[in-house]
Amino acid sequence: MSHDIKNYVAGQFVTSKKLFDDINPVDGSLVGKVHEADKATVDNAVAAAREALQGPWGMLTVTDRAALLEKVADGIDARFDDFVAAEIADTGKPLSQASSLDIPRGSANLRFFADLVRSARGERFEMQTPDGAGAINYTVQKPLGVVGIISPWNLPFLLMTWKLGPALATGNTVVVKPSEETPGTAALLAEVMHAADVPAGVFNVVNGFGPGSAGEFLTTHSGVDAITFTGESATGSAIMRAAADNVKALSFELGGKNAAIIFDDADLDKAIDGTVRSVFSNCGQVCLCTERVYVHETVIDEFVSRLKSRAEALRMGWPNDEQTEIGPLVSRAHRDKVLSYYELARGEGAEVVTGGGIPEFGDERDNGAWVQPTILTGLPENARCVREEIFGPVCHVAPFSTEEQAIAMANDSVYGLAAAIWTEDMSRAHRVASQIDVGTVWVNTWYLRDLRTPFGGTKLSGIGREGGRYSLDFYSEPSNICIKL
């Protein structure tokens, strides 16, 4: 049964005259009608957020803010099944993933930053002065103000709370624009915030699109002090231009064309398992997914053969089936994009080892946004399908002969988000990892995250770092206080 998904502004659920469809990518059914925020609604949200900074929210102590974040996390856990259902309805991802990763990490993000902000400390310096009495300098962290959070559709709840947690923990107020493809969990979180008595205006949600809609209204708004965004690099560039006039603080986690390097001494069982995860998790719709796989020439034939078998064995089923391993893409429009790259690969001369098309189910899933897990080989390094981010369940496998060649191939990209290295030689692991120009390098694993560590990319993969104290640093402004003794 479909339902209305409203905006949430100044502690109230707000409707609009213009609505758009939220579509389930599993079978093309209608999830709900979404109320699109107009410019006046976004203005009201920013004004409410600004007012809340001066109101009860701004008067709360760090301890009180942290306690309120934990209360919200408790509310998420209490409605766990509702959040899982909303995540599945919007994304089509398997129940096993939504219930073990996306929703648990959402509440965990809030708890993590609540704990972290309690122990955050400023700096203190003593200095000599000409009169000999001296002075003391110390820093205090102040909130940036109103933060615009633009979250993506691939991990909508996890990545929204990843930004929301530190933004609220450091005393900011927020206006969230979820992806138009996945508005469900943001609307649910508004209900939880409301029930937890979070002061009106602290958390606002505006639904809509990019240009000419809520995204543009938010990023160009003079009352917004910072923008944090996860999504495509081209969109990040557009936001940067839009934010330039008001010199907003920016944090971007953008695209990737991530490489995996499998050396001849790698444990192939582990490397195959890890590469299956890094290529096909969430149907390849993770910015950290591997799309370029470089394998030593002495083991590439065995590697490709075994990867092919594993890809073809992945179970594509209904989300609530516990045996399902891979779901659909987020929309039929995104499916068309991915399929266009499959066709381009053939035109560029690729050998399609497996996949390359649309699966047939003989039921309602044929109305959804499904594509086959796909493995390509045989393309030159300058081919578009090797250079451009596809964001689907696909990888290109190519051979290398030397360590130096593998490093050069991995670094030959306009992106620099993540890489995976598979080797049993730890000297080689350290040596190679330090030479890969990315924000995160995994060795003999993938997507293993310690929330205290810096996360972000180089080149077209982003600006800044989030995670641990790096998030607290972005979402707050240090102010120095000098006391003459």
Identify the strand order in the major beta sheet. Answer: 15-16-17-14-13-19-20
Output mean pLDDT. 97
Number of domains: 2
Shape annotation: globular
Structural class: alpha/beta
**Terminal Cα span:** 69 Å
- Report on the biggest sheet: 7 strands, mixed
Number of helices: 16
Number of strands: 23
Measured by DSSP, the beta-strand proportion falls in: 15-25%
Low-confidence stretches: none
Q: Give the class-level CATH name of the largest domain.
A: Alpha Beta
CATH architecture of the largest domain: 3-Layer(aba) Sandwich
| C-alpha-based Rg, rounded | 23 Å
Q: Would you tell me which CATH topology of the largest domain applies?
A: Aldehyde Dehydrogenase, Chain A, domain 1
CATH superfamily of the largest domain: Aldehyde Dehydrogenase, Chain A, domain 1
Descriptive notes:
The protein is of the alpha/beta class and 485 residues long. The chain has two domains: 3-254 and 461-484, Aldehyde Dehydrogenase, Chain A, domain 1, CATH 3.40.605; 258-450, Aldehyde Dehydrogenase, Chain A, domain 2, CATH 3.40.309.10. The protein is 39% helix and 22% strand. The chain has helices at 39-54, 56-59, 62-78, 80-91, 95-119, 156-169, 184-195, 214-219, 233-244, 268-280, 300-313, 332-347, 384-387, 403-411, 426-433, 468-474, and strands at residues 3-5, 7-9, 12-14, 19-23, 30-35, 124-127, 135-143, 146-150, 173-177, 203-205, 226-230, 249-253, 258-262, 290-296, 351-354, 374-377, 394-400, 415-416, 418-422, 440-443, 458-459, 462-463, 476-484. Helix 3 packs antiparallel against helix 5 (95-119). The protein starts with a strand and ends with a strand. The relative contact order is 0.14.
